[in-house]
Structure formats: C-alpha cells, structure tokens
Design goal:
It is a single chain. The chain is of the alpha/beta class and 249 residues long. It has six helices and seven strands. The protein has one domain: NAD(P)-binding Rossmann-like Domain (Rossmann fold). It binds NADP nicotinamide-adenine-dinucleotide phosphate (NAP).
Length: 249
C-alpha cells in the first residue's frame, strides 16, 4: 500500500529536475500524478515511463487558462485534486543595478505569481476534494539573501510569505500549505555551478533531487500537524557560518 494511494496530484515544472523526482516519488507511493510543465517532450516521456495514471499536461504557470484546463482535466481523468506542488521556477542572475527590469519581472512572474495563480485556481478543487496539501518549493533564497540574485531572492521570500497567508486562509477547508527550502541541488538549473558553491556547508556537496522529493513526500503524507511552516533541505547551509572554526580541530 502506498502512502499517497488514491490521491490526485499536480506537480508543476515536473518534467525534469526536482519536479520530476517529486512526480516519480509521488507516483511510486500511489498518487495519480499530473506532470505539468512547459517542457512537453520531456514531460510526456516521463509520464510514459511512469505509466498510467501518471499523465502530462502542458502548463505555463503564468497562464490562467492553462491552470483551469490542467485542474479540470486532472479532476476528470483521475478524480478530486488533493495535492498541489508549486515547483516550477527559473533562476536569472543580475545585480540590482544591472538586471534588466524585464528579467526581474519574469522571475517574479514564474516563481511567485505562478504559484499564487496555481493556489488561486486550485482552491475550489481542493475544497471539492475535502482538503489536501499544497507544497511550495521555495529555496534557501527564501530564508536569507543572495547577492546577484535579488529577483530570485525576492520571489522565494514572497513564496514563503504566500505560504503562510494561504495556510491561514485554507486551514478551515482542511488544506495544509507548507514551503520547502532546498539548498544547492544537482539539476539542470545548477548545471553551470561548481563545488565551491557547497564547500562551506556542514554537508559539503550538492543535494540530489530525490532528497527534496523525500521531504515533499513527508510534508504531503506525514506532516499532519504542520502548516504555514518551512522545511529545509540544504546540507546545513543555513545553520550558520563555519568561518571561525579552527581547521586543525
Ligand atoms: P529545473 O531543472 O530548471 O526545472 C524546472 C522546470 O520548471 C523546468 O522543466 C522548466 O522548464 C519548468 N518551468 C520553467 N518555467 C515554467 C513555467 N512558466 N511554467 C511551467 N513550467 C516552467 O529546476 P530545478 O532545479 O528542478 O528547480 C525546481 C524548483 O526548485 C524551482 O522552483 C527552483 O527555484 C527550486 N530550487 C532549486 C534549487 C536547485 O539548486 N536546483 C535550489 C533551491 C530551490 P524550462 O526549462 O523550459 O524553463
């Protein structure tokens, strides 16, 4: 018996990276997963690999019509929607001085507005399901600041705040809403980064997408007394600084 048997889930940005790992893990635990992404070829191929009831739906998280269609089709195909993972996101570097205004807006649009739109559209469906869980994939950039990543940092803090407001609003409907805050994870998004990114962490390596998926499963299936809060998967990066530690000890 799976821990998510008979639950219908939508995972945005589910065609690759962290979203794909979450889709795989949820499907392995018995959920009927809709992989929702702009990357059609990769999404369809993952859905075919996992087999029915896993399905793919083309979804740009910034498009209200895509959201309505994805939720309606998921409900029609596999029943009431009780799990939503707002995972789709983009990373664009740029100092506050140099980043183009369109780039700032694009990052906020996908990472924050896209998740809000997902929640906004999914609330009636979650209510019809009698409750559920929303997992928002924020970042350690939603817990601290990163230079040259002002837009990304603002979007991920925004998503953390949205999580709390939604948790308060939706508790009466039996919906829990939590955020997950990964540190550096090996995915196409971080393909250009080297090991110096993780060298100061207590666990000095990149995380694996499966390690974030394990936390998403915990939040969805087990964390029944948790809502409006943060779950961190970062190799200890936000625990503090090791800068004053004596290398000889
Ligand atoms: P990824 O490998 O780039 O995968 C993200 C997926 O989302 C891609 O398939 C991407 O398609 C899709 N996507 C982008 N814009 C979209 C949109 N408007 N609508 C629907 N899908 C869209 O990234 P990842 O590393 O797995 O990241 C997943 C989430 O974790 C993101 O929210 C990211 O910010 C967060 N995160 C990642 C890390 C990390 O180190 N990897 C750390 C902390 C947080 P395209 O390729 O076409 O853009």
């Amino acid at each position: 018996m799976g821990r998510l048997d008979s639950r219908a889930a939508i995972v945005t940005g589910g065609a690759r990276g962290i979203g794909a790992a979450i889709a795989r893990r949820f499907a392995a635990e018995g959920a009927a997963v809709t992989i929702a992404d702009v990357l059609r070829e990769e999404g369809e191929s993952l859905a075919a690999e996992l087999g029915p009831p896993t399905r793919f739906h083309t979804l740009d998280v910034t498009n209200p019509h895509d959201w309505s269609a994805a939720i309606a089709e998921a409900e029609r195909a596999v029943g009431p929607l009780s799990l939503l993972v707002n995972n789709a996101g983009i990373l664009e570097f740029g100092s506050i001085e140099m980043q183009a205004p369109e780039s700032f807006r694009r990052v906020l649009d996908v990472n924050l507005y896209g998740a809000w739109l997902g929640l906004h559209t999914a609330v009636p469906a979650l209510r019809r399901a009698g409750g559920g869980v929303v997992v928002n994939i924020s970042s350690t950039a939603g817990l601290m600041g990163y230079a040259e990543l002002g837009a990304y940092t603002a979007s991920k803090w925004g998503l953390r705040g949205l999580t709390k407001a939604a948790a308060l609003e939706l508790a009466r409907d039996g919906v829990r809403v939590c955020s997950i805050h990964p540190g550096p994870i090996s995915t196409p998004m971080t393909a250009g980064m080297d090991d110096s990114v993780t060298s100061g962490q207590p666990i000095p390596r990149f995380g694996r997408p499966e390690e974030v998926a394990a936390m998403a499963l915990f939040v969805a299936a087990d964390a029944t007394y948790s809502t409006g809060c943060e779950f961190v998967v970062d190799g200890g990066a936000t625990a503090g600084s090791m800068i004053l530690a004596d290398p000889a000890t």
